[in-house]
Design a protein that fits this description.
Elements: H1 8-12, H2 17-30, H3 49-59, H4 74-88, H5 104-115, E1 121-126, H6 130-138, E2 142-147
Parallel strand pairs: 1-2
Length: about 160
């Protein structure tokens, strides 16, 4: 029975580029090459000790053991709005125009889910981060790639 089930959205996803890069990297390392991986922005060192100490301090407080508000902690949303005001002179309401997510991917996917209808077409730059295409495909949309090329006169 399960052999007949097709997961159309998953079937439509392109191969994850970072998985391909990781396979190539590991093959080179097994062959003895010294490979420096610039593919992802993962930290390559430990967090600073004061950061770790604050995390431990916070973890010891029982009120931090639950989930935060669905939009994120108010003081964080207020800080985000204040940063936008200072940086871009844009006034935002922390109650209705700011949300804290677990990361940019989660926020991006939820935004795309909210604004995409089945069959919508999204123009996505190429190259791009995988989630920029994946999010629209998972939302039932279609992706048209727009190749980004180097042009000396228009390059910044």
């Amino acid at each position: 029975m399960f052999d007949e089930i097709r997961f159309n959205k998953i079937d439509r996803l392109p191969k994850y580029v970072f998985a391909v890069v990781n396979e190539l990297k590991m093959a080179e390392r097994r062959a003895g090459a010294d490979v420096i991986d610039f593919s992802m922005g993962n930290p390559d060192g430990p967090a600073f000790e004061p950061v770790i100490e604050k995390l431990v301090e916070s973890a010891k407080k029982p009120h931090t053991h639950g989930y935060s508000a669905s939009k994120g902690i108010y003081k964080l949303r207020l800080a985000i709005c204040n940063w936008y005001l200072k940086k871009y002179d844009v006034v935002l309401d922390p109650e209705s125009e700011a949300v804290a997510t677990m990361g940019s991917k989660e926020g991006y996917v939820h935004l795309v889910q909210a604004i995409t209808n089945p069959g919508d077409v999204a123009i996505v730059p190429d190259p791009t981060y995988p989630i920029h295409s994946y999010a629209f495909i998972l939302a039932g949309g279609n992706v048209e790639k727009m190749e980004i090329t180097y042009n000396e006169q228009n390059y910044e």
